[in-house]
Amino acid sequence: MQRVSLRLPEPGSFEDLLRPVRIEVASLVRLSRHPATEPYWSSGVYRFDDPDPGRAGAVGTCYTASTIEVAFAESVIHECGRFVRGSYEVPAAELTGRSVVHFVCDRRKTLVLADLTGAALKALGLNNDISASADYSTSQAWAQAIHGASRRWDGIRYVSRQMNKGFAYAVFERSGLSRLRAGKLGAQQLDELCDRFNVAAV
User: What angle do CA 144, 162, 121 make, to 5 degrees?
Assistant: First the structure.
């Protein structure tokens, strides 16, 4: 069977099909090496970044998660883990050096995100390759198009590639997101995460 690539967001073909989901700002979590500089706004690198970071008005994106487990899988394991002899090996400094970051918005308590999960995703003529493909060109095109479609969109909700029972969020810079507080992962919490995900410090 021939594999069909994801469709691109042609103007006029998707705007009215986007479905919103409201997310509590207080529920967003991020594991960061540099908590003092959060939120970190990326462009041109990750899944839902602006594909053209050099252009005027380029979109900045901050990646957050629905739970600490999703954040751990998406950041610590994905970025630093190596599966060797039956477990993920992660440098000890990467485990102990991360801080849990929570956020706030001065203007509101919820964000309106374009939902790229479940029926909302399928209704757009897409599938979960948008969240799982190693090629970011199409997902970045969608992020740029959603951002440009309406100022109502504060970002995107999608299925975590690294923990597919959870959600991740690509929050646009214009959302007004700012850091509320940050603190190191507790030793017990870190041990529980390592046990759950089969991670060994090296």
Answer: 45
Sheet holding 199-201, edge to edge: 82-84, 87-90, 199-201
Using the structure block, give the residue that is written with the tokens 């050099």. Answer: 54
Distance from chain centroid for Cα 134 = 14
Phi-psi region of 198 (alpha: psi -120 to 50; beta: other; left: phi over 0): left
- Confidence label for 4 from pLDDT (cuts 50, 70 and 90): low
Where residue 188 falls among pLDDT bands split at 50, 70, 90? Answer: very high
Tell me the domain boundaries of the chain. Answer: 20-201
pLDDT at 5: 83
**Mean model confidence pLDDT for the chain:** 95
Q: pLDDT tens digits for 74-94?
A: 999 999 999 999 999 999 999
Residue 140 corresponds to which tokens in the numbers above? 């970045």
Q: Is the separation of the CB atoms in 179 and 35 below 8 Å?
A: yes
